[in-house]
Each structure stands twice: as C-alpha cells, then as structure tokens.
Amino acid sequence: SYELTQPPSVSVSPGQTARITCSGDALPKKYAYWYQQKSGQAPVLVIYEDSKRPSGIPERFSGSSSGTMATLTISGAQVEDEADYYCYSTDSSGNHGVFGGGTKLTVL
Amino acid sequence: EVQLVESGGGLVQPGGSLRLSCAASGFTFSSYWMSWVRQAPGKGLEWVANIKQDGSEKYYVDSVKGRFTISRDNAKNSLYLQMNSLRAEDTAVYYCARQRITMVRGVIGSYFDYWGQGTLVTVSS
After folding, report:
1. Which of B35, B110, B116 is facing A42, going by the closest CB pair?
2. B106 contact A CB<8A
3. Chain B neighbors of A94, CB-CB under 8 A
4. Tens digit of pLDDT for each residue in A28-68?
5. Which residues pair with B119 in a beta bridge?
C-alpha cells in the first residue's frame, strides 16, 4: 500500500525556521496537504494543494513540492506552533487517502 | 456554521460490532464526499473510508475492508460507519470529516476541510 514518509520529530528555537518534509512516490502527480494537530484537538488544515494557505492561517506557514517530496515551512516559528503535523495525499488512483506518520514539532 | 458531531463510540469486546453516526449541519450534506478518519491512542491519523455524494462509490483502507461499511442518509444529513469483527487494533478516536474534491491545473485533489471532534472506540475484553 502507498505510504507517505515524514521525520518523527523536528526541533527549533523560537524565531527560527522549521521545515518538515513528506516523501511519497505519487507526489509528482498528486497534491500534498498539511494538517496541524494540537493535543486533544481535531486536525486543522494549514496548507492545501501543495502551497496554498487557508484563510486564518498565519503567513509564516508555507508549503512547496518538488518531485517526490513536499515541504511545510514555518518561518519564524512561535511557541504556539508546537504541535503534530501530518501530510496527506492520495494514492495514484486517487481513491485512497493516506496520511504521513506525523512530525512532532518542538519550539523551545 | 459547519458542524459535524459524531456519536456511537464506546467499549466493545473483540469480535463485536458498533455503529458510528455523524450528524452534519450548516452545509448541503448531499453535495459532498464524506470520510471517516481514525487515530489510535498516541498514534497518527489514518484515513479509513469515504463515500461519494450519492453513495454510489465507497473506498476503504485495506485493514478494514470486508469488516467496516460506510453509508449515508442524505435525507437525515447523516454519515455512518458500521464496524463488525472488531479487533484491539481498531481502538481509536474516529473522526467524521467533510471531503473536498478539486480539479486544479488538470490535477484532482482531495482533502478534508471540516472535522468533527471525534468519538472514542475501545475494543477490549
């Protein structure tokens, strides 16, 4: 079955840039989406269609995709950005969704 | 305001059954694909199943195929997940999510724009 691979953890100091990667064989032909999940809460969409930002999401969140890798970038990470981040996409058929394993972002 | 409210979770023995429900409001339910996503305790998100607007297409993750059935009642603005032959590894918070399908530059995209708060299913003897 199709898989998306993320690093388990990323750590940065406040104000630094955090980059979280997501790799998958179908990403050259499928969009990547990014979700933020804080403890005990439902996920929140922070990036859609590789690089678009939903309304209400701070400008410090950005996304990009090249080849088999998508990247979520948080420029000037804040303490409140500490959360688990998940990439999401579909397999090549488009019929089955898949999440990456998640990346725990620590900002301290 | 879009609202998705799950119900039906609880404690069930291995091999047992449970039916989850999701009540939708604040949007035209019959116009959207809908999905179930789960999260085992301390683990990541896992897409479980989805269903087309009219129920004519349904897809499942391999681990639940043949055991779980997704369905919907557009007249009641409700989504369901019938779970049979439950296993310990099905223990998770189950989220109902509205699915958006887009076509941009010839690429079909699919993602979840609204989520419920989840209902906990515990499979244990």
Report:
1. B116
2. no
3. 108, 110
4. 999 999 999 999 999 999 999 999 999 999 999 999 999 99
5. B94
Any B CB within 8 A of A49 CB? yes
Using a CB-CB cut-off of 8 Å, the residues of chain B touching A98 are 47
A19 is written with which tokens? Answer: 């980059």
Picking from A31, A41, A27, A107, the residue whose alpha carbon sits closest to that of residue A74 is A107
Check: CB of residue B98 under 8 Å from CB of residue B32: yes
Residue-wise pLDDT tens digits, A69-81: 999 999 999 999 9
Does the distance separating the beta carbons of B61 and A42 come in below 8 Å?
A: no
Pairwise CA distance, residues B68 & A49, whole Å: 30
Instruction: State whether residue B119 sits within 8 Å of chain A by CB.
Output: no
Nearest residue of chain B to residue A31 (CA atoms): B109
| DSSP conformation class of A17 | -
Contacts of A82 (CB under 8 A, 6+ apart): A38, A105, A106, A107, A108
DSSP characters over B59-119: EE-GGGTTTEEEEEETTTTEEEEEE-S--GGG-EEEEEEEEEEEEETTEEEEEEEEE---E
